[in-house]
Design brief:
402 residues, Tyrosyl-Transfer RNA Synthetase, 3 domains, 6-stranded mixed sheet, 5-stranded mixed sheet, 11 strands
């Protein structure tokens, strides 16, 4: 593939819009000018998901073309709360919560971006480096670049006002602070989902004001159901496939996605060529079982994050567990001891989000150890459970080892 073809695909694949225009950015990319490009993500949870991966993959393509790329962890802005795409105010986090969330982020992103190469490594920054140093005068200076009318043009604010729901002042400040990230790093390009266009354009405004400089905005497609328009990957709603999910969980979640998402997931979350994806799409339309395409999709994605061997094991696990209804032979072990509460074991095994969630699973008849269905939420580990396989829900299995 020629350099021009690489750039054309880069500006087309998974891209919804480019501002001020695709043509202007392509002209710059075709020149010898080296650009500084960044993606920001707020540390609102401990996991990144496949929706983020679309942007990281685009960033890596730009890095390989020789451009300077930055991953910005929004540790300061996470404490403020981004209203983008939300009908209610987002909960602001404490500094301690943010630090806990961010612990494994670099490791997760490293599956897609090269931080260790000697030539042009990906850079990692936190926006607390500059935002935490700002004073009230700095914030007022930023606010002078925008009007209240501009802020009220945001869809989610208009809807809230129409529904007599509150819009908080700190939510007006968020795009100003995200916009200042562009100024502090003096970037040429920002990449984000279409739900971030307003915030990214705030950065474009501030770049012109502070540096008299053009900033390009690349808005990527969101992973949304084509009919319902509901986000398929959302941390706030808890429905996502995390970059650090186990191979089995990742494969199973992929297979549970709606068939309508298959082609877009191939485009946005894999490196398979567009002509090959077009063939897969055509085969589905002409009668190929969508399940076959989904199996390939699941294997491609698990391979990307865990390797080909783990992808093969995950497929076997899925077939044994779901297609044949068997307890899989190769299950991970969870260590416990006599007297430990079952609720704690389930949570520690990552088979429930909390004790309350674990309790609900037991009450709904979804937990069994060996051949025994568990109905007592206060049960503790006993000798008879040692070396037994515990099932939680329909697909999750662990072997109990004392």
């Amino acid at each position: 593939m020629s350099r021009e073809q690489q750039i054309e695909e880069l500006l087309t694949r998974s891209v919804a819009t480019i501002l001020p225009s695709k043509e202007k950015l392509k002209a710059v990319l075709m020149s010898d000018q080296k650009l500084r490009v960044y993606i920001g993500a707020d540390a609102t949870g401990p996991q990144l998901h496949l929706g983020h991966a679309t942007n990281f993959m685009l960033l890596e393509r730009l890095r390989k073309l020789g451009h300077e790329v930055i991953v910005l962890f929004g540790d300061f802005t996470a404490m403020l709360g981004d209203p983008s795409g939300r009908s209610t105010e987002r909960k602001a986090l404490t500094k301690e919560e943010v630090e806990e969330n961010i612990l494994t982020w670099k490791e997760q992103v490293s599956k897609l971006l090269d931080f260790d190469t000697d030539t042009n490594p990906t850079l990692l920054k936190r926006n607390s480096e500059w935002l935490a140093k700002m004073n009230l005068g700095d914030v007022i200076h930023l606010s002078q670049n925008f009007t209240v009318q501009q802020m009220l043009e945001r869809d989610m604010f208009e809807k809230r006002i129409q529904n007599n729901q509150p819009v908080y002042l700190n939510e007006f400040l968020y795009p100003l602070l995200q916009g200042y990230d562009s100024v502090a790093m003096d970037v040429d390009v920002e990449i984000g989902g279409t739900d971030q266009i307003f915030n990214m354009l705030a950065g474009r405004t501030l770049q012109k004001s502070f540096h008299q400089k053009e900033k390009f905005v690349i808005a990527t497609t969101l992973l949304e159901h084509p009919v319902t328009k509901k986000k398929i990957m959302s941390k706030s709603e808890g429905n996502y496939i995390a970059l650090n999910d186990t191979p089995q969980d990742m494969f199973g979640k992929m297979m549970a996605l709606p068939d309508e998402m298959i082609v877009q997931m191939f485009v946005d979350c894999t490196y398979i060529s567009l002509p090959e994806i077009a063939k897969i799409s055509k085969d589905i339309v002409t009668g190929t079982n969508p399940r076959d395409a989904k199996v390939r999709l699941a294997k491609e994605i698990v391979t990307l994050y865990h390797g080909a061997d783990e992808a093969e094991k995950a497929e076997t696990y899925f077939v044994e567990t779901f297609s044949k209804g068997h307890t899989p032979q190769d299950v991970r072990e969870v260590k416990t001891s006599v007297g430990e509460k079952l609720l704690d074991v389930i949570v520690a095994s990552n088979l429930a989000e909390s004790k309350g969630d674990a309790r609900r699973k037991i009450e709904q008849g979804g937990v069994a150890i060996g051949d025994e269905k568990i109905t007592d939420t206060d049960i503790v580990m006993e000798d008879r459970f040692d070396q037994q396989v515990m099932r939680v829900g329909k697909k999750d299995f662990v072997k109990i080892v004392f």
